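Supplementary Methods, section 5.1.

A reviewer requested that the exact input to the structure prediction be made available. We therefore reproduce it here, unchanged from the version used in the analyses.
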Amino acid sequence: QVQLVESGGGLVQAGGSLRLSCAASGLTVGIYDMGWYRQAPGKEREFVARILRIGASTRYADSVKGRFTISRDNAKNAVYLQMNSLKPEDTAIYYCNAPNQVLGQNYWGQGTQVTVSS
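The structure derived from this sequence is encoded token-by-token as follows.
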């Protein structure tokens, strides 16, 4: 059974930093294109960042480029999102994602709340 468990969210002032963690079980993060998404109140879930299984290449939404960094620790079977220079518009629930391209389905965590005050 696949489980993705996010942690590390919280309340931070604008300009501050947070580090989100996604602990995986039932799958190996090193063979998935692991990603982070977020959903703000009243908005649709949107892509934030992804780290590819091949070469650990990374992809970012334009809104977070230069501020967020996604990384992976294969030994801990975990994925991280370092968020710096946070803005109030980064306030959202952040979700860890693992797309199963073979089965055509996505695995999601339960989410962790990030709130950035101005």
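The mean pLDDT is 96. These observations are discussed further in the main text.
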